[in-house]
Amino acid sequence: MDTAPAGQWESNLRERLVQWRERRGWTQTDLARELRNRYGLPFHQQTVQRVESGVRPVRLNEAYAIAQLFELELGELTESHGTPRAVKLAIQNGLSNLSQLAEEVVEKVSSVALAAERVYHSAGDEWFAYVERQERAGEQVDPELKREWTEFEQLWEGANEAWSHNSIKGLAD
């Protein structure tokens, strides 16, 4: 547990608030708007400026809302850097966020793979119908079309291999 004095916790919170706000690319006005819209806090740009500068203390409900907004545990905003608890909280939060992002990647890759499979089968149906028609008519397959089909098929195989690769499937595990 962090043994810093209570005043240090608030100082840590102010410092982390600025860091997380800037990581998001938000202005003080953006942060105030998010806190107002999502949590009903009566924040304006001036409120954020006063909190960040230490002129205005942060209330407990505001600190919790700020932590939720940045998807953090409150301790991550208040703990001193480099303490075992701060490291543990950062790792736990990182694992949670990475797991969620991995699930999103797998979901998106699966969706794209299904769409690509439909494209491949549609083109394949046309190709094989064309080849069958040419054979029935006793005619040669157009060499340019055959080259394009081969190129298309190679691209499909490479893409299919990429998104079915175990490292992508294992991301969310």
From TrEMBL:
HTH cro/C1-type domain residues: 17-77
InterPro entries on file: Cro/C1-type_HTH, Lambda_DNA-bd_dom_sf
PROSITE patterns membership: HTH_CROC1 (PS50943)
Protein name as annotated: HTH cro/C1-type domain-containing protein
Source organism (scientific name): Ornithinimicrobium pekingense
